[in-house]
Fold:
Amino acid sequence: LAKTTQPISMDSYEGQEVNITCSHNNIATNDYITWYQQFPSQGPRFIIQGYKTKVTNEVASLFIPADRKSSTLSLPRVSLSDTAVYYCLVGEGVGNQGGKLIFGQGTELSVKP
Amino acid sequence: DTEVTQTPKHLVMGMTNKKSLKCEQHMGHRAMYWYKQKAKKPPELMFVYSYEKLSINESVPSRFSPECPNSSLLNLHLHALQPEDSALYLCASRGSGAYNEQFFGPGTRLTVL
Structure:
C-alpha cells in the first residue's frame, strides 16, 4: 500500500481558503485518493475522492497532478467548525469493497476567529 | 439510512472480564471493518470482513476476537485485555456506491483497568 505524508498541523483564520497537500509517491495504477475528516471522539467522515485531475463537491475540491504522486485538498472559506483532523488515504477504491484502507498520520487543522 | 451504530458508547472493564462491542449497519454493505484509535493517532486497521468472511487480520492479538453473524452485524469480543488496549474502537462499513467510501460509526470508548 502506498504510504502517505501530510503536514502534522496547519493554522488558518475564518474565511480563508485552506490547502492541505498529501504526498503519495508509490501510488499504484488502480489506487484512488480519498480524504476523510474527523472531529474529536467521532468516527471519520468521507469528504472527497478522486483518481486524477480535479474533483469538486459541495464541501471541497481535490487537485491531483498528472503524475498522481501528490494531491491537494482545498477547503474554501473555512469556518470554526472546520477545525478537525484531515486524513489522506490511498488505496483500492471503487470496485473493491473489502480492500485495505490505511490511514496516514493526518493533518490537524485549527481555524481561528 | 446511512448510519453505522455502535454499542456501547463507553465501556470500562477489568483485565479478567469478557465483554463484546457491537456494530450494526442497514445500508446493505458487504464489507465491515474494525479499527482501533489511540489519542492523537490515526485509526489503525484491525480486521476486515467481506461477505461475512474474515478477509484481513492485521496481526491482532487473540484477546480480540471478531465475529460477523450476518451481513448487518459485526461484533468484537474482548477477553483478558491489557490497560494499553484502552482506546476508541471504530467500526466502518463499505459498499458499492459511487465512491466505495467507508461509513464510520461513532465508536466505543474502551477503558481497561
Chain A has a mean pLDDT of 91. The beta strands of chain A are 9-13, 18-23, 31-38, 45-50, 53-56, 61-64, 70-75, 84-92, 107-112. Chain A touches chain B at residues 32, 34, 36, 41-46, 49, 87, 93-98, 100-106 (CB under 8 Å). The CA atoms of residues 25 and 69 of chain A lie 5 Å apart.
